[in-house]
Write a structure and sequence with these properties.
Layout lengths: L1 E2 L5 H6 L29 E2 L7 H39 L2 E4 L3 E7 L2 E3 L10 E4 L7 E7 L3 E4 L14 H7 L14 E2 L5 E12 L2 H7 L5 H17 L4 H5 L3 H18 L3 E12 L2 H35 L3 H16 L3 H16 L5 H19 L1 H17 L1 H17 L24 H23 L22 E3 L5 E3 L5
Helix pairs in contact: 3-8, 5-7, 9-10, 11-12, 12-13
Length: about 500
């Protein structure tokens, strides 16, 4: 079978007007004129003897049937794909927002208001236009952590522990800014720290319109780095190592100010500093440094307490006395003697007044008591000798004899004095004296009284409770200053006090 003209001569004769196959009427040409016939592109030649068009179609049916089946199957597959795409197209307009999530709905790239809110609440939401005309931007708004543990921490190899790095650290090994992280403190010291934070998105619309969600963590990290550098620059090394809640809050506020300036809808909730250390080279000796600083603080505190106790012991008006003394010393340094004398007089008046208390009052009391003692002893004797001086100049032997007999009598008149009479001219004599029992009792009683008096003086800070003034002394008569009452107390002799 070969390709030939599909129409035989009988079929051509049946065409209207006797037109041949392939003839196309041309507008403007006169009817009855046959146009030129094109060359056939394909010819069917049937070698077998087929005498009609029906026989030819019967020969072509298997090929046409196969092509029709293939086209029909392809069309069915195409219909299924179209149905699936249409279903996906409409389903893409629905989106569920989980808890701790939020976002926005976009329509042709613009934010759509949903339930009078531009941000999406948790639940199922439907966009009237599926993707790509309608779109959802969903993201987590809570519990978003950031970790800057490497930003300000020394570079330690993975196979080396922190303690091994500390043990192997050397003072001569310098830090490399491109490799090691650190901060600079107020005193110029270096320090290392780890810092982690947690933030949340409080304004999803502002967040979407300001930054890309993939860059949110990096933005917060940069804000935290800036805050750490600024805050630690105002802290000492000790304050940074002993990190407090106030320091963490200052870092958080400083980073939050940066985020507020950027208007990105991010709120930095928490900041933690799990570890802070000085340079590893001095960590080994840091324990001793810490102890030394602690001891220094204790010594300073003890010194302050001692100073306070000393000032309180001076008296309640120690501030007034300190100012007056300072003014007096300033006047002396300036050489103003008149002002210095006036200030000294005022100072004496304050010291001797009832306003004085504490150790100052005790010192003044002892001084006045001592003055009274001098007045009552040496002063009285000086006046006594001054009174007998004229008689001594006229009759010195008589005065000396009289004074000797007075001293002799004052000794022999003591109740604890024992008298022994020996014959004259006896020479040397060794005598064993036991003494009278009455005299021994008197001596024991006087010794007990003396010890009680000494104990009383010691309990009162060495201040003698009683002194005799010159008016209490009778010239030419010596007597004990104190006596013991029947109740066992001590009082000035001859008084009822």
């Amino acid at each position: 079978m070969t390709m030939a003209d599909p129409y035989d001569q009988d079929d051509l004769a049946q065409l209207p007007g006797g037109a041949q196959d392939g003839d196309v009427p041309i507008e403007g040409e006169p009817e009855g004129v046959e146009p030129p016939r094109r060359t056939a592109s394909a010819q069917f030649a049937v070698e077998a003897e087929v005498g009609s068009q029906a026989a030819l179609r019967e020969a072509m049916d298997p090929a046409n049937q196969s092509l029709a089946d293939a086209l029909r199957l392809s069309f069915q597959v195409l219909q299924g794909v179209i149905v699936v795409l249409i279903a996906l197209f409409f389903v893409s307009g629905f989106r569920t927002v989980q808890d701790k999530q939020s976002g926005v709905m976009l329509r042709f790239g613009k934010i759509v208001v949903v339930d009078e809110q531009r941000s999406l609440e948790p639940g199922l939401h439907r966009n009237l236009l599926p993707y790509p005309a309608g779109e959802f931007v969903i993201f987590a708004v809570e519990d978003r952590p950031v970790d800057l543990k490497e930003a300000f921490w020394p570079n330690i190899p993975a196979n080396v522990t922190l303690q091994q790095a500390i043990d192997g650290a050397r003072v001569t090994a310098a830090l490399q800014p491109a490799r090691d992280g650190y901060v600079l403190t107020r005193d110029g010291d270096l320090a290392h720290l780890k810092i982690v934070g947690e933030y949340e998105i409080i304004d999803p619309v502002q967040f979407v319109t300001s930054i890309d969600e993939n860059n949110a963590d990096r933005l917060v990290e940069l804000a935290l780095q800036r805050a750490v550098v600024h805050v630690t620059a105002g802290l000492s090394l000790q304050e940074l190592v002993d990190v407090s809640d106030d320091t963490k809050e200052r870092v958080r506020q400083s980073a939050q100010e940066v985020l507020l300036t950027l208007e990105c809808g991010i709120d930095l909730v928490k900041v933690h500093m799990p570890d802070t250390k000085p340079p590893l080279a001095i960590v080994k000796a840091y324990g001793e440094l810490q102890n030394a600083r602690e001891q220094a603080r204790e010594q300073i505190e003890r010194a302050r307490q001692n100073a306070q106790q000393t000032l309180i012991a001076v008296g309640s008006n120690y501030r007034t006395l300190a100012r007056m003394i300072q003014r007096y010393e300033d006047a002396q340094q300036l050489g103003d003697e008149d002002v210095a004398d006036e200030l000294l007089a005022e100072l004496y008046a304050v010291l001797e007044s009832d306003e004085s208390s504490g150790e100052v009052a005790q010192i003044i009391y002892r001084a006045m008591a001592y003055e009274t003692e001098i007045e009552s002893t040496l002063g009285n004797e000086a006046r006594l000798f001054a009174s007998i001086l004229p008689a001594y100049r006229e009759h010195p032997e008589l005065v000396c004899t009289t004074r000797w007999f007075e001293a002799y009598g004052s000794v022999l008149n003591r109740e604890d004095a024992e008298k022994f009479y020996l014959p004259a001219g006896l020479g040397s004599l060794h005598v064993i004296i036991s003494g009278l029992e009455e005299i021994q009792e008197v001596r024991q009683r006087r010794g007990l009284q003396r010890r009680e008096r000494d104990a009383l003086e010691a309990s009162m800070g060495g201040i003698r409770p009683f002194y005799r003034r010159s008016k209490d002394i009778e010239p030419g008569q010596a007597r004990p200053l104190l006596e013991v009452t029947p109740q066992g107390t001590i009082r000035p002799r001859g008084t009822d006090r």
